[in-house]
Amino acid sequence: MGFSQLHLNKNTSLQVTKTKLDSLQRAGVELMIHMCPNCHIQYDRYQPVIEKEYGVEYDMVHMNIAQFVALTMGVKRVTA
Q1: What is the pTM for the complete model shown?
Q2: Is residue 36 within 8 Å of residue 54, measured between CB atoms?
Q3: Per residue in 13-68, pLDDT tens?
Q4: Among 71, 46, 47, which residue's Cα sits nearest to residue 60?
Q5: Structural domain range at position 13
Q6: How many domains in the chain?
Q7: How far is it, in rounded angstroms, from Cα 34 to Cα 63?
Q8: Is Calcium included in the keywords of this UniProt record (predicted)?
């Protein structure tokens, strides 16, 4: 119900994502590796939006599986 609702009901989408981020933070998650590209977008792109809108801060990193595999293979981070 996160990304699929983003364009139809942005507030609900962000609230659902915030609820999940709250739960992940309580569990001590520091790194999330996403198989689903839409999930990666929802968490990585909208975590800062949620932090600003709700006045919260999450200390976790989001990566898609390809990024994670590349890092484990020793590929250096490229910044644009």
Answers
A1: 0.80
A2: no
A3: 889 999 999 999 999 999 999 999 888 988 999 999 999 999 999 999 999 999 99
A4: 47
A5: 3-72
A6: 1
A7: 6
A8: no
